[in-house]
Structures are given as structure tokens and as C-alpha cells.
Write a structure and sequence with these properties.
CATH superfamily of the largest domain: Vaccinia Virus protein VP39
Radius of gyration: 22 Å
Strand order of the largest sheet: 5-4-3-6-7-9-8
Order of helices and strands: HHHHHEEHHHHHHEHEHHEEHEHHEE
Oligomer: single chain
Number of domains: 2
Number of strands: 9
Number of helices: 17
Strand content: 5-15%
Distance between the termini: 47 Å
Shape: globular
CATH architecture of the largest domain: 3-Layer(aba) Sandwich
Helix content: 40-55%
Largest sheet: 7 strands, mixed
CATH topology of the largest domain: Rossmann fold
Structural class: alpha/beta
């Protein structure tokens, strides 16, 4: 029997608790001298890199079956025992792992997410964040701010997406990392938005189709199409087609700048529009509009940037877009509305979720 879907907490409760947490953090920073608060801020990146190392070394996978003594764990993952102890000391102090009284290392609820086989695994995301390539490009942030754009053409001779095409290993890691990030929002999205009113959904730039697969499994009469680049789509049928999906799930390849499949009741764009500047985003949306019937709906799943000064994950992701993409950015509701209007749509509503994303619904204006 399949396990029950995790319960999603009410959005007002999540917002309240988030504000309390952020308020306490801000109060703590105000209660110490500014240079001390700044020094504490500098250490956050070190803990992140330690977690990235743990992901790359497979520490959480090695602890999946139970606690292990340091020497045993070091042998299992092929590392120096003394260096492992030093790495784990920082990770334990940050709550990522724990250590029993007998000295054995043990998983926590946090480290479970670094396991390859976790229900929601972030191992590939942390491997990406800790990679030489990702760190290299974040060192260009000051110059990206000066110029207002990514420096990929100067550093690699091409834009990021072209690089991912030409370097399959990097592209594969990126695809897996984005799938893992997307899985965080799947249940919140399903809880917030009713996909059951559509007979068919076309997932544009759908990657491995994780959200679409989840939607189809919950709605047995629905049909779906995953549309993405040939390198992404070519191996998907043998990976994804299984009981209950054969005949309901199809795959098409191409570029969303040229054309997309016709005939869908809804067109899904998850984490696509934020990768592009306004001109290219409008081109993508116009291509989708051309394929849509007047009754069809456009569903953009992306961050909707708050118009306030409080902490929000989108503010981090927005800088990632600046550093890594050819003009990508996160947008406010007003900016989405203007973009959609220029592309031939009317913004119907924005449905927030308890995750960092919202569902932006629009219908054709002509």
C-alpha cells in the first residue's frame, strides 16, 4: 500500500511561524555588536560547504542502515578518519548529524534529506552547490552586479544552457538537482491548486516530469505530455512509463522558442520563465499562446517576489539567476502581470503555497 501523502500545514500558520523565526533572528543580530553579527554571518557559508562535502562523500547514505563508529564510517566511504572527525564536528554542531555517547555517528531529520534514496532527496542539489563549477561562477557576483548580467560567455565561451548541452555530466547533475528542488514543492502545490479540472496537461520544459507524474497519479483519467529538449526526453519513456501511465503519458522534444505541442487543456511552466530575461520570456509565452485554444489555461509555477524587505528564498534565487543565466530573474506579481499581458494573456490569479513558489494562472486574451 502506498504511504499517505504528507500533510501540508495551513498557509497562515506557516507565514506566522516564518515571521516569528525571522523576527527572532533579526532581534538576535541587533543585540550584538555589528561586527560580531557580521562575523557570525560569514560562518554560514562554511557550514553549507561542509554539508556539500557530506553529500559528495555519501555520508548520509553510509549511515542509512544505522549508526557507525568514526573508523568504520571512514573505511566505508574511503576517507581519512581524522579529517572525517573534523568535518563531522562542524556538521554535528550545525544539527546536520548527531553523535551518540558511544561515539557513533547517526542520522538526524536534517541529514535524511542528503540520502540518495530519501523521499525528498537534496543530495544532488548539495553536490551541485559544492561543485567547482558552481563556486567558480558565484565568485563572479561582484562583476555580474557591475555589468548587470551573467559572465558565462566570458568564463566558459557560451551561456549556461549551451554549456549543459555540451557537457553531459554537468547537465545531468543540474537536471537532477533541479528535480530534487522541485520535489520540495510538489505536495504544497497539490494542496493549494486543483489540477483535477483539466483533462490534459502539457508540461513545457518538464525535465523528468516529476510534478506531472504526481498529478497524473492523483487523477487517473487525465492525460499528460512532457515536452523538453531531445537530450532530456530521449531516455524518459523507459524510465517513467509504468502501470497506469502507458497510454496517458507521452513525450515530445523540441525548443519552446519554436513550437510546443497543441491541444492541451492546461500548459504548465514550472521554473522556466525565471530563467530568462523579459524579451526571451515573452517569446516563450507567445509560442505557448500560439499552441493554446482559447479555453485553455496557462499555469506558471515560480517564485512571486514579495514587495517588502523581509527574508524570502526568492531573494537568494534571484541572485542565482543573475550569476548563472542569460538574463533570468525572479518577478513580482505586477511584473508577471505586465509580462503576461504583452504575450497575449490575462493574469487570472496567483495561488500561494506553503513552499517558496506560487501558481500563477492566466488565460489567453485573444
Amino acid at each position: 500500500m502506498a504511504s499517505a501523502a504528507p500533510k501540508v500545514p495551513p498557509l497562515p500558520l506557516v507565514r506566522f511561524l516564518t515571521r516569528v523565526r525571522d523576527g527572532l533572528a533579526a532581534l538576535q543580530r541587533r543585540m550584538v555588536p555589528g561586527h560580531i553579527a557580521l562575523l557570525e554571518l560569514s560562518t554560514v557559508g562554511y557550514l553549507t560547504q561542509a554539508a556539500c562535502a557530506a553529500a559528495e562523500l555519501g555520508i548520509a547514505d553510509a549511515l542509512a542502515e544505522g549508526p557507525r563508529q568514526p573508523a568504520d564510517l571512514a573505511r566505508a566511504i574511503g576517507v581519512n578518519e581524522d579529517a572525517l572527525r573534523r568535518l563531522m564536528r562542524l556538521l554535528i554542531s550545525g544539527g546536520v548529524f548527531t553523535q551518540r555517547r558511544d561515539g557513533a555517528y547517526q542520522q538526524t531529520g536534517i541529514s535524511e534529506g542528503l540520502r540518495s534514496d530519501a523521499a525528498v532527496s537534496l543530495r544532488d542539489l548539495f553536490r551541485l552547490l559544492g561543485s567547482d563549477l558552481h563556486r567558480k561562477h558565484w565568485t563572479t557576483l561582484p562583476e555580474s552586479v557591475r555589468r548587470g548580467r551573467s559572465l558565462w560567455p566570458e568564463t566558459e565561451g557560451m551561456e549556461f544552457f549551451e554549456y549543459a548541452e555540451q557537457h553531459p555530466e554537468a547537465g545531468e547533475l543540474f537536471d537532477r538537482a533541479m528535480t530534487s528542488v522541485g520535489s520540495l514543492a510538489t505536495e504544497p502545490i497539490q494542496a493549494a491548486y486543483d489540477f483535477g479540472r483539466y483533462g490534459s496537461i502539457v508540461d513545457i520544459g518538464g525535465g523528468r516530469g516529476s510534478l506531472l507524474l504526481d498529478i497524473l497519479r492523483r487523477h487517473p483519467s487525465m492525460r499528460g505530455t512532457v515536452f523538453d529538449l531531445p537530450r532530456v526526453v530521449e531516455s524518459l519513456p523507459e524510465q517513467l512509463l509504468g502501470p497506469g501511465l502507458t497510454g496517458r503519458l507521452t513525450f515530445e522534444s523540441g525548443s519552446f522558442f519554436d513550437s510546443v505541442p497543441k491541444g492541451g487543456d492546461a500548459y504548465l511552466l514550472k521554473h522556466i520563465i525565471h530563467d530568462w530575461n523579459d524579451e526571451d520570456a515573452e517569446r516563450i509565452l507567445r509560442t505557448v499562446r500560439t499552441a493554446m485554444e482559447s479555453e485553455a489555461r496557462l499555469l506558471i509555477i515560480d517564485v512571486v517576489m514579495p514587495e517588502n524587505q523581509r527574508p524570502h528564498p526568492g531573494k537568494v534565487i534571484d541572485l542565482e539567476m543573475l550569476v548563472q543565466t542569460p538574463g533570468g530573474r525572479e518577478r513580482t506579481q505586477t511584473e508577471f502581470g505586465n509580462l503576461l499581458s504583452r504575450a497575449g494573456f490575462v493574469l487570472t490569479r496567483v495561488v500561494p503555497t506553503v513552499a517558496h513558489v506560487s501558481v500563477i494562472e492566466a488565460h489567453p486574451s485573444w
